[in-house]
Amino acid sequence: MAFNANLGREFTFDEADLDANRAGHLSADQEIIFRNTAEVMRRRTPRVKVLLAVVFAGAIAVVAYGISVTPGGGTTAGIVAAVILAWIGALFFWAMGRNRRYQAAMERRELITVEGEVSFDNVAFDEGMGGSMYVLKVERHKLSVTSSQMDAMTDGARYRVHYVESGIGRPAPLTLERVEA
């Protein structure tokens, strides 16, 4: 199939990216993007994470103690404050785990190719990752696309889609092309 400039513009890939993905590997530009992303994620050292955990635990203890000895505060108020802060800390460390999964996926950079009819019926709207994303279904695979990317495709048509798992949710297509049945 020939390179489709409209799909390339909407999904931000060029003919060299598509040719490399067709051959089963990432293009030089795609490799740079994934390698740099993994490098940025790798900069967070384990020592910093342990220090954050210790500081956060200490802050919880200090706040809980301070509230419990304050007139009108009491032990119950101190425990409630500690539970709330512990919950916030748990969310923080959950996000750190999510970042580790994302980093591992960027380091693996395993290209996946799927071919089949695309479906937009019952499109699921996903407000994640800071913007409006929609679910593109290709066979049993689900990918995230924007509304303009969705508009560049034909519902029910057959496409070959190349993507890399993100480790943290639905991946987005790297390149794609319409193929004949």
Supply database-style keywords.
single chain, 181 residues
Q: Nutshell version of this structure?
A:
This protein is of the alpha+beta class. The chain has helices at about 5-10, 15-20, 30-40, 45-70, 75-110, 145-150, and strands spanning about 110-120, 125, 135-140, 140-145, 160-165, 175-180.
What's the tally of helices? Answer: 6
Which oligomerization state do the chains in this entry correspond to?
A: single chain
The helix/strand class is alpha+beta
Strand content: 15-25%
**CATH class category of the largest domain:** Mainly Beta
The radius of gyration over CA amounts to 23 Å
In N-to-C order, the SSE pattern is HHHHHEEEEHEE
- Total discrete domains: 2
Which term fits the overall shape? elongated
The CATH architecture assignment of the largest domain turns out to be: Beta Barrel
Q: Which residues form runs of ≥5 with pLDDT under 50?
A: none
Report the end-to-end length measured between terminal Cα atoms: 12 Å
Helix % is: 40-55%
* Major sheet attributes: 6 strands, antiparallel
CATH topology of the largest domain: OB fold (Dihydrolipoamide Acetyltransferase, E2P)
DSSP strand count: 6
Mean pLDDT: 84
Characterization of this structure:
This protein has 181 residues and is of the alpha+beta class. It has 2 domains: 5-24 and 109-178, Beta Barrel (OB fold (Dihydrolipoamide Acetyltransferase, E2P)); 42-107. Helix content is 52%, strand content 19%. The protein contains 6 helices and 6 strands, in the order αααααββββαββ. The chain has helices at residues 5-11, 15-22, 28-42, 46-69, 74-108, 147-151; strands at residues 111-119, 125-126, 133-138, 141-145, 158-164, 173-178. Strands 1, 2, 3, 4, 5 and 6 form a 6-stranded antiparallel sheet that branches. Helix 4 packs antiparallel against helix 5. The two termini are 12 Å apart. The relative contact order is 0.16.
